[in-house]
């Protein structure tokens, strides 16, 4: 075997030899075949060094064949995809793919970072806790940050599409190996709706590479039949390339389907939310490494992976492969190598007396078995060249006899198998340590989950494992436990020495198991070593906590394409297209898109707002108030109910009248305000702030359903069913009178705070005289679908009167000039009715209402609370800004006594005015206070908030 | 993801619901002391175990109802309508 | 080899690191102590340290049902800041931040404090007003905060999308805010306290409180009874459970708070970013992981697991603001219990039972409070009277209605 793909076997594998593919790795071009993974193709081409380790930058090779791979991480560029930290074992080979190692500098072949390996004794676990304290951590942090991280955030857009799907099933089988397939077949034959999820691209698991027989037929034949049956069964859904990543409450599991994720032209990732009546975990087991000095060299591969590469990809990891094991299973690898024509210089078996049938077969094949022996050390920086073998003492605690060196170019190692019980543990399942199998196995679980096959510690046949924590000699700081984070046995010894003996302490101190592979090939060794070092059993040490994700999930897949407007839909008003067509400058107000103002061409925002304010004061303006919350409350007890919800009296409100009300929470804090009108006896229309519409409807519903279910009434939120168009200004009445209607708009017939129903411009209409602007104002509500046409009718009818549309900002200025409260701006999480001058209303109210008892607390009535006031700068060159603080200065220590809550440059008065909350504000009118904003201060006078028309003549007119 | 049983609609995903705190709290009248009022307003059993609590099927029928739910395992031990008395439930697996 | 330093690390290297001593002792449990603290989390450990260090009280046991630092301090996203709204909160949290600034040297343990700034975003004009009020409040309290324009924000976090569904209108930053290594903080206090003679007793669960004549006499534990006349509950999410043993109901709701980390990548985010509107906060750890958190799962729970809706919401919020992270993979998702009070201000000080003290109600903000929490609790226990910085945080504020409502001020979990 020489030349390209020198390590490709001539026959065998599931690769498509008639479809060669070219790819690049770290700038070098190679060929492989369709059906390869990047890992198998690299191995086929004899690429030994596929990465550099995180801390010491040691050259590393491929360790495994599946999701537990921890060394071969590349940035993959393929078509539109650019993704960092991809495991080569999970990346299907695609034409033109480019793989780059990102944590080696200047190159993977020569990495300056290796100097850390040469000085490794300076950097034990937790070294950064002991130093870098002076002058501060930030002096050193930059360097550490730059050397951490094994990949780079790719530039450019994420070109993948993401979707999410829901699935309900009777049985979810996780894992498509022999145990999972059996379960799926049984459930399917029993008529259940089955989902089977397999993280590899094809079903089969070990059946694809372990040979043998099932139910009297060769494994591959059994597999083919099983797959065919499942695909043809009506109620079975097969998901491949799908990793079940989290087990959540009530047997809901989340899986990420990457079956199209690597399509270079249109990559797609899908999220499946699976609700199963019963879950079967057939997630298999993960082979564990052996721990000996320099067990991390390129060419040292897990034994199961070695035979998987032979059987599935027709690739050999080397030409002369030593096999080292502490159990029976790795013999299958030795025999598979031999059958493929690869030299196996020795099988190094730690057990004193390996199973006779295995030694017989080894002898028949001419393979030397060295029993009761372990690998002590290896040589070969860029690829293992030689291993050193010695015999174990009887108790396994030391080495005896002479050392023997064996030349090789690869080493297949097996330290046993550990069930992949992660999902089981996430489901709340408890694990127990099985001394015979030397691993943790599922014990018991309350969720509706069962575990079968290797995941349950059932490996088909006994492994006859001789568990050794590690080779009992050799420098422990060269014995690797966690390849990803470069954690050695010495680090764990140090953790134990320093009393980080709880398993979680050891993990966090050494960082073992904390990286991308979450300890799949390291946790068990780490825990075993910790047990030995602290004189406990492994069962006593226990495991660290298992958490989602079983293997990392892209954030895009979790968002499932819910971005932008799908993430938070924008709500638009009925007359939206009119607003857009007429130059509205939209802003987000809560979830609503609303015009902030309507600037004319060349007009600044401020100028537009000023113009809109003046047209309201002097002529007539039209405002879209459709988001205004509207809730109908109807029933014999409607008035009684509202009387308990509002601070104000609701019992005395007659039909056709409206009243301004405050709502409190039970802590006495103002949560909303608005006008409520009596439409007819027992029928009320409650208005809330736009932001409060849903919240208040739910609030009222809660009180009704939970506290006062005996009250007879219905609460019907109708916010989005009615468009609300507000005409305000001295000419508003005139405009309405000119529209075809059966409502009498004349001053005597329709006073301020009245409610009328009828028809307007051919539409049912509800009209309230409510004013936020301080002018005579009519809130006209029509069914939402008629909102835009009525808007146009008003604009047409008002042209001669000088009508203009106004936005939210102008309304805010108008109401600030009027001194009207805006809940949420002028109130905060502490403001109660006394603070805003509603003390009289509260005291006159009879009976309980929500929040009343809180107002009886002395704290709620203190005279030094922050009270609602108006403010004017003393100097005309100063401007008030909302968010400024009002300062007192006592004895040199400055303190905030309140804030500016609203402010504007008033067009009506031509000066800066504001509203605020100030301690003892009611008694301080006329006083001068200091206003502080972003480091600067000026003086302002406290005044009554009603700057404009305090007597309300305009509003009532 | 919790699957919660609405007495009117059946079992639905947790994101259709809104949590409403402890059930069976009696609202004191205006004559209660400040301490009693604070207890009603702010203090809750907050048990590590079975909790009797109110839920609203917000993206569904819009009805409030009660659940007895274990606050560690999230096992649902009882589901009953608003206004019905607290049922007898046994422990719930921890 | 007791002291940590570059020199001692070098000496260690030359002796194969075989001479390092235990970071904390594993003492024998005695049957009585002057002070017993329940909970060896950040607050319990810090309280014990300051009792020993500043008040000379060393006959202390901290009882921890699991392993020290395994609760909230072992699970959180490590944000340290003091940009609070109300003067009482600001004074307390800034005292804490100052203690953080000298912690590595004071405790001789590098807690890796990285004061890289915490940036809070505004997504509308109204947001900016609210932020301005908040930023001014912080400046009034003489703590650093700066209002930022959108251009400033983009310079600080180049990866941020400024014009997504929730455009960025600006923000404000506390530059002294930052992150530190949460495990290191717990271990630093544990080591220092243990060295001063405090007994940290792990795997010891408190099963009952012994109270007679309305006075603490001791505790019942899984390892036998312990007599004491001063007992402090420092158990965060389990505050209600322990308080119930004294017949006290507290205004706490325990909920699940999740956090997630991505796979580690090279530096790309140099500041902590928080968006109260989009409900998430994000930073990059020194190992390169993007660390992400959001709002709590809103229902009573001690499960420490977290559900799918919040996970998806939080990740969506992140990718809305940082679309570049869409291809990054999340490596791990975990959760802890947060004890939320009605005003998101802690519960500290004395209780109706003589000799029983409480340090809880930390909600989502306990980590940054560890040093000040420990310092003020130690004073309170030593003097049987609340420290001046925490007189407003007492249990009695609920009956009077004098809440300190930080809820609106801080928005999302922090």
Structural description of this entry:
The complex is a heterotrimer of chains A (957), B (94) and C (414). Chain A has 26 helices and 50 strands. Chain A is an alpha+beta fold and 957 residues long. In chain A, helix 11 (489-497) crosses helix 13 (523-534). Chain A starts with 15 loop residues before the first strand and ends with a helix. In chain B, a hairpin with a 7-residue loop joins strand 4 and strand 5. The model of chain B has no long low-confidence stretch (mean pLDDT 94). Chain C has 414 residues and is α+β, with helices and mostly antiparallel strands. Chain C is 30% helix and 23% strand. In chain C, strand 9 (206-212) and strand 10 form a beta hairpin. Chain C folds into two domains: 30-78 and 182-251 and 343-409, FAD/NAD(P)-binding domain (3-Layer(bba) Sandwich), CATH 3.50.50.60; 118-175 and 253-340, D-Amino Acid Oxidase, subunit A, domain 2 (D-Amino Acid Oxidase, Chain A, domain 2). Chain C has helices at residues 6-14, 42-55, 87-106, 125-140, 150-156, 182-195, 239-245, 308-321, 370-383, 397-400, 407-410; strands at residues 35-38, 60-63, 79-80, 118-122, 146-148, 170-174, 178-179, 199-201, 206-212, 215-221, 226-227, 230-233, 253-262, 272-275, 280-284, 290-294, 297-300, 329-340, 347-350, 356-360. In chain C, strands 4, 5, 6, 13, 14, 15, 16, 17 and 18 form a nine-stranded mixed sheet that branches. A six-stranded mixed sheet of chain C has the order 8-2-1-12-20-19, with helices on both faces. Chain C has a three-stranded antiparallel sheet with strand order 9-10-11, with no helix packed on it. The chains are: A alpha+beta (957), B mainly beta (94), C alpha+beta (414). At the A-C interface, strand 6, helix 3, helix 4, helix 11 and helix 12 of A face helix 1, helix 3, helix 4, helix 6 and helix 8 of C. Strand 31 of chain A pairs antiparallel with strand 18 (329-340) of chain C, so a sheet runs across the interface.
